[in-house]
Design a protein that fits this description.
two-stranded antiparallel sheet, disordered N terminus, 4 helices, Alpha-Beta Plaits, alpha+beta, single chain
Length: 153
């Protein structure tokens, strides 16, 4: 432990993020190791991202759209990356399709006074483009559900 216990806290945070996300299994042919889990995407040889990373990218992109107050259960751009898989999974779902494309389903709280179809299209474009540009994972569709309308006085 270092002064103030910061290294222990960082170690705990890193362990909590990585816990039970990646399972490594021996491959049959060459004796090497391959990633064997439904929670990860191999985007390049030797580079793997988790569903949580894809969901964070989707959430941050959705928060950038005009008219979005927050994601699902109160996540904003300021706190989405700190929320963790538990809170994030309530607002954003990443589903792997058979053809290795993904479907992203997310619930947003709309700010009052915005046109729902326009905001939804904007969210779909931002989320799809962000995921494809950052990871190379092809996005089949982005399903947007307006869960509420926020009225700030």
């Amino acid at each position: 432990m270092t002064a103030g216990g910061k290294s222990d806290l960082m170690l705990f945070t890193a362990m909590a993020f990585c816990y039970n996300v990646i399972k490594v299994a021996a491959s049959g042919g060459n004796g090497g190791l391959t990633m064997a889990t439904e929670n990860t995407f191999t985007i390049k040889e030797g580079v793997t991202v988790t569903e949580e990373v894809v969901a964070i990218i989707a959430g941050l992109a959705a928060c950038e759209a005009d008219g979005v107050d927050c994601i699902g259960n109160g996540l904003t751009a300021a706190n989405i990356s700190k929320a963790g898989a538990g809170k994030l999974s309530k607002g954003i779902k990443v589903i792997r399709e058979a053809d290795d494309r993904i479907v992203v389903r997310l619930a947003v709280v709309l700010a009052y006074g915005y046109e729902i179809p326009a905001v939804s299209r904007n969210i779909q474009e931002k989320v799809g483009t962000s995921i494809e540009n950052m990871t190379g994972i092809r996005v089949k569709e982005v399903d947007v559900r307006i869960s509420s309308v926020s009225v700030h006085s």
